[in-house]
Design a protein that fits this description.
The complex is a heterodimer of chains A (175) and B (504). Chain A folds into two domains: 101 residues, Rna Polymerase Sigma Factor, Chain: A (Orthogonal Bundle); 55 residues, no CATH class. Chain A is built from eight helices and no strands. Chain A is mainly α. Chain A is globular and about 60 Å long. Chain B is of the alpha+beta class and 504 residues long. In chain B, a hairpin with a 2-residue loop joins strand 25 and strand 26. Classes of the chains: A mainly alpha (175), B alpha+beta (504).
Chain lengths: 175, 504
């Protein structure tokens, strides 16, 4: 293995490790099922490895990888009978376009979210994190809520966090 | 979109994610998303928020750092790096000990690269090995189980009778017997070899058994590994995935016999006995947000509040709560000397891309037995990666490989080890964002008695250069933190209690 090839591989590993969360976020936006999105991320990563020769260092890696992810998402619908892609092509395309457009702000939103999470009441935070760690049933049980109440609370908390993140960023921009 | 539509779309998004979306609702959602750019933006941000929550939830969940049966799901994410990781191994040397002379790489063999962290009914064939393991060390287990944690974070459970050679923080060779490997994301690239095959872990769990005939069998329990046969004409690399297995002999690869039964055997959980490792520590959370004093939280390590000097604007939003902001005039220091040197120093830092590149030190800490370290970012390209963390002691230095000036928070942990072969040379491991760093440069670090007991932040009293950036959650501890403990601290901002470590 030449030094140049070893350097190239090091670049690839570094880029993937640094950016997998961003790529996952893009895929999840198109396929909002955690396990399906993780599988698609795996497939995308394999293609990224194969095609890394086509990537020009210094250009936007996330944009390049998301392009690959986009085709994996499209292909998954025809490949699997029980595809988790819920929207029709026209909607999917429009959403993908917006997701690519908003990609640059995602890091700031991700970090602001950590601060917003800290502001939640403990019971609410537990509900939310348990929901994402396991499932809604478990989250309801652990926080002493009925299932219906848990679904309602989740929708409310997501909206609350959405607004909190937006406020944090606009107040940061103002200072 | 008006407020009512916003609430409606939010509920639709939640129904979609929680899998309760009815067909009519889906049509309505599609209609909204097609009609308005604002609706699409709302949708994308809500989904991205959920994706972030998935990440945060797996980071904050109750830790099972020493449980080798169920690693968190997110470790799988990285696994498909396939052919990539293997080539890195040649570059990674693992934790380094600083040589006495410039570029003295021969000293690598003196350092410790792994520890025995657990055992069950363990009987050693030859001498009982010490708790800390050096490269080249051979472990001969007669019977029972031994758990070995490498500095990279990879964890092996060896089942006797077995012989294993420790090569580095990133590599081991199984001569015979059975080993089960659990490799977290930060230790991707960890390699387990045998006479017939090389297995590179891509962030997963696998087992390997090696028979006396030299053949080896590889079983992937979770994720994927890359396997490459050795000593055969066609040593083509391939990827083995979850629940796949393969036998490698001198004359080539074949199917594993009784594979199902063997998989079942590897799924067993071994209840390891682990020694409790009490720890004294002091932490500064920097959550005051006002005033000139940063209070400490201590546990058996008496270190008081830090007194802050310089400009009056020295607080900022932090990685956790507030942080201490250094604008080029701020410094902070302890009034009284530390009772003893730190063995682990950990903190978060954020440096902007435009911060001036000077030799203003983030911190100066008395570590180990009287060795004083300054933490800086490297400004000398000839000595190592520019912008990476630089540890300076006297005329010696140790430079990491990850540039830090990118406007993001980075978690830094420095573990100061013993060096049984040469007491005048300290052993050192640096973790950036939980991953063990290969130094990009190092030179002649030695123990010395200067500044014993000192701890300051932002710049040395005798120097006019000052650090510019943010510091948060500064911790010193009186023992070495394990790679698992460092990852846990990074993800949750909490220390694993000794009970948790011992009980697992």
């Amino acid at each position: 293995m030449s030094n140049a090839a070893a350097d190239r591989t090091k670049e690839l590993v570094l880029l993937m490790t640094q950016n997998q969360r961003r790529i996952f976020s893009y895929i999840y936006t198109l396929v909002p099922d955690r396990h399906a999105a993780e599988d698609l991320l795996q497939e995308t990563s394999l293609v990224v490895c194969e095609k890394f020769g086509d990537y020009t260092l210094g250009t936007d890696f996330v944009a390049w990888a998301c392009q690959i992810a986009w085709w994996q998402v499209r292909a998954s619908r025809t490949k699997y009978a029980r595809s988790k892609v819920v929207f029709d092509d026209k909607v999917l395309e429009a959403v993908a376009h917006t997701a690519a457009e908003l990609a640059p702000e995602q890091d700031a939103r991700h970090e602001a979210l950590a601060r917003c999470l800290q502001k939640l009441a403990t019971r609410d935070r537990e509900l939310l994190l348990t929901r994402y760690e396991s499932n809604v049933e478990e989250a309801a049980r652990r926080t002493g809520r009925s299932l219906v109440a848990a679904y309602k609370a989740l929708a409310r908390l997501r909206k609350l966090l959405h607004d909190c993140v937006t406020n944090q960023l606009s107040s940061e921009a103002a200072t | 979109m008006n407020d009512i539509e916003r609430v409606e779309l939010n509920e639709l998004c939640s129904a979609l994610m929680d899998d309760t979306l009815a067909d009519a609702q889906r049509s309505r959602m599609e209609e909204m998303l097609l009609a308005s750019d604002e609706a699409r933006r709302f949708y994308v941000r809500t989904m991205a928020l959920s994706a972030s929550l998935i990440g945060y939830a797996s980071e904050m969940q109750t830790p099972e750092p020493l449980n080798i049966i169920r690693p968190p799901q997110w470790r799988r994410w990285i696994s498909p790096l396939a052919a990539a990781a293997v080539i890195l191994i040649g570059v990674w040397i693992g934790r380094s000990l600083m040589g006495g002379k410039s570029g003295d790489a021969a000293a690598d063999g003196d350092e410790m690269v792994a520890q025995i962290t657990g055992a069950k009914d363990c009987q050693w064939a030859a001498a009982t090995p010490g708790d800390e393991l050096a490269p080249g060390q051979r472990l001969e287990l007669k019977s029972g189980f031994a758990e070995i944690t490498f500095d990279s974070g990879a964890q092996l459970v060896l089942e006797g009778p077995a012989t294993l050679d420790v090569r580095s923080a990133w590599e081991a060779e199984l001569q015979r017997g059975t080993v089960k490997a659990n490799v977290p994301q930060e230790a991707i690239g960890f390699t387990l070899t045998n006479a017939t095959v090389q297995v590179v872990d891509l962030g997963t769990e696998f087992s390997m058994t090696a028979g006396d005939d030299g053949a080896a069998e590889v079983f992937v329990l979770k994720g994927a590994v890359e396997v490459q046969p050795r000593n055969t004409g066609h040593s083509q690399k391939s990827v083995l995935r979850e629940k796949q297995s393969r036998r490698f002999a001198k004359n080539g690869g074949s199917e594993v016999r009784d594979s199902d039964a063997k998989f079942q055997r590897f799924a067993r959980k071994i209840a390891m006995v682990r020694r409790a490792r009490p720890m004294a520590y002091a932490r500064w959370h920097f959550d005051e947000g006002t005033g000139d004093v940063a209070a400490s939280e201590t546990n058996g390590f008496s270190a008081g509040a830090l007194r802050i000097e310089g400009s009056s604007q020295h607080w900022s939003e932090g990685r956790w709560g507030k942080a201490l902001a250094f604008d080029g005039s701020t410094t902070a220091k302890l009034d009284a000397a530390l009772p003893r040197g730190a063995r682990t120093v950990a903190f978060w830092t954020r440096l902007s891309e435009t911060a001036p590149t000077n030799d203003g030190a983030l911190a100066g800490v008395s570590m180990g037995k009287g060795t004083f370290f300054e933490f800086l970012t490297n400004t000398r390209p000839g000595q190592g990666t520019p912008g990476a963390l630089r540890l300076q002691s006297g005329n010696g230095w140790f430079i990491g490989s990850t540039p830090l000036r990118d406007g993001r928070w980075h978690h830094i942990a420095t573990v100061f080890g013993a060096n049984p072969k040469n007491a005048t040379k300290p052993g050192l491991a640096l973790y950036v964002d939980g991953r063990l760093e290969t130094p990009s440069g190092r030179h002649a670090l030695r123990r010395s008695d200067e500044n014993a007991g000192a701890l300051w932040l932002g710049g040395a009293a005798g120097s006019s250069e000052r650090f510019q950036g943010l510091l948060d959650e500064f911790l010193i501890a009186d023992r070495q933190l394990s790679p698992q403990e460092i990852r846990h601290l990074m993800r949750t901002n909490q220390l694993l209690s000794p009970d948790t470590v011992a009980a697992n």
